[in-house]
């Protein structure tokens, strides 16, 4: 009996462990597909690169849509088209000739663009009637192409103009290219044990670049004589980023611990990559600390991560003519005392 009880306890333990494996939240099936993204500045544009991974056991991915939140609604009668998210069209794209037949007569499609696609895949810009937004869609060209097989990862890419509005909080082109959604379509020809049956999947795009660049600024010269003269200042900037080799540099501001005159800062362009400007070597009377110019730069990678760095230019306090006379008198008195001791 003791042996039977021991065996029962062991079996109970094994069953418990199996239950923990199969029924715990950690054991739930992972998403059938994932999309990771990286953005870099290149040639005046922003290149978005996507890695699409098929995590199913037996289904093939035959279409990939970027900037697409999938179908809206569960009722087949009231279901609407895909919810597009993109707003800035790919570089090199243009409006085609208006359609002359069908339900879209008079409408012009957006065609062309700069893309990178796997072999035997084709890409197009997909617009929808319900919104002015769009998605970028890839599909395999022929039915015999296997698509993205289980366990495989394919690369896709699109080049987009940057957002040149300095007032915008985004220096990247369009946030939805990185922070939007994707929808992948699966082959209808394969019947598997993966259920319930699904023919597409929508998920969030995961941006890999989440850290700001490393930014350092040095100004030359860093000290000015208090002689009221204008002096050219040169900024030396060092910036590195894990993913983007050409982070965007901007001169954000030049401030001072004193109220400045209009002419104290010259030849300066803010919110662009301006690394040379002119400052006046002056300070307010009575300010013993002198004048301190604080120059602020930013570096923003193509994923929108922003770093700030500052450097200073100092105009030391001019002790003035009156204080200079005192210094000269003190020096003469010291020399006289030294002679008297001899």
As a percent range, the share of strand residues is 35-45%
Main β-sheet, spatial strand arrangement: 6-9-2-1-12
Report the total helices: 3
- The total of beta strands comes to 19
CATH superfamily of the largest domain: Mu homology domain, subdomain B
N to C succession of SSEs: HEEEEEEEEEHEEEEEEEEEEH
Outline: elongated
Radius of gyration (CA) equals 33 Å
Give the integer mean of the pLDDT values. Answer: 81
Query: What's the quaternary structure here?
Result: single chain
Q: Using the coordinates shown, work out and report the CATH topology of the largest domain.
A: Immunoglobulin-like
Helix content: 10-25%
Low-pLDDT regions: 1-28, 321-326
In CATH, the architecture of the largest domain is Sandwich
CATH class of the largest domain: Mainly Beta
How far is it from the N-terminal to the C-terminal residue, by CA?
Answer: 115 Å
Described by strand count, sense and barrel closure, the largest sheet is: 5 strands, mixed
Derived structural class:
mainly beta
Structure description:
- Helix content is 14%, strand content 37%.
- The chain has a five-stranded mixed β-sheet.
- It folds into two domains: 31-207, Immunoglobulin-like (Sandwich); 214-320, Immunoglobulin-like.
- With 342 residues, the protein is mostly beta strands.
